[in-house]
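Quick one:
INPUT:
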C-alpha cells in the first residue's frame, strides 16, 4: 500500500476500493466470456470475429492488471477468490449456451455496456481528486468504448447479411 497514494485519493477510499473490486471481478468474467465465446463461435464472419474476440479477451486481462495494482496501492484487498466474482460484479455472466455468432456478440455487448458504466462511474467519483485512478479509469473506458463499437459494427454487418438474404428470396 502507498501511504501518500491513499492520502491523495478520494475521501471515501473504501468506497473506491469497493468499486475497483467490482471492476476487477467484471474484467475476469468478461475475459472468460470472450475467451470461451471465441472458441464456441459458429456462423458467418467466424474467423475475423474469433481473432478479434481473443484480442478483446487479452485486453480485459490487461485491465484487470491495472485495476488490481491500483487496489493494492490504495491499501485495499483485491478479490482473492473466483467464487466471489459474481458477488462483486454488477454485470451478470452470460453463459454462451447458444454458439451462434449473433448471440455471442449480444452477450459480449451487454458486458461492454456494463463496463462502460462502471468506468464512467469510477471516473466521475475520482475526477479532480484522485488523478491516478481517474486517468486509469479513462484509459480503460476508451478501450471499452472501442470494444462496444467493434461489436456494434459486426452486428450491423450481420443484419445486412440477413436483409440481403431476405431480398434474394423475394
Ligand atoms: Fe475491460
Ligand atoms: Fe471490453
Ligand atoms: Mg477491438
Amino acid at each position: 500500500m502507498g501511504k501518500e497514494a491513499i492520502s491523495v485519493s478520494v475521501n471515501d477510499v473504501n468506497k473506491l476500493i469497493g468499486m475497483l473490486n467490482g471492476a476487477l471481478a467484471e474484467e475476469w468474467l468478461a475475459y472468460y466470456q470472450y475467451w470461451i465465446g471465441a472458441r464456441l463461435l459458429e456462423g458467418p464472419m467466424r474467423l475475423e470475429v474469433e481473432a478479434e474476440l481473443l484480442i478483446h479477451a487479452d485486453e480485459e486481462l490487461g485491465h484487470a492488471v491495472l485495476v488490481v495494482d491500483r487496489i493494492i496501492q490504495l491499501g485495499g484487498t483485491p478479490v482473492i477468490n473466483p467464487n466471489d466474482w459474481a458477488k462483486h460484479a454488477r454485470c451478470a455472466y452470460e453463459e454462451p449456451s447458444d454458439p451462434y455468432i449473433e448471440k455471442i456478440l449480444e452477450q459480449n455487448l451487454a458486458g461492454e455496456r456494463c463496463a462502460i458504466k462502471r468506468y464512467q462511474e469510477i471516473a466521475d467519483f475520482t475526477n479532480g481528486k484522485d488523478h491516478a485512478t481517474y486517468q486509469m479509469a479513462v484509459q480503460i473506458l476508451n478501450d471499452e468504448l472501442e470494444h462496444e463499437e467493434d461489436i456494434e459494427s459486426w452486428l450491423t454487418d450481420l443484419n445486412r447479411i440477413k436483409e440481403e438474404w431476405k431480398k434474394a428470396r423475394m
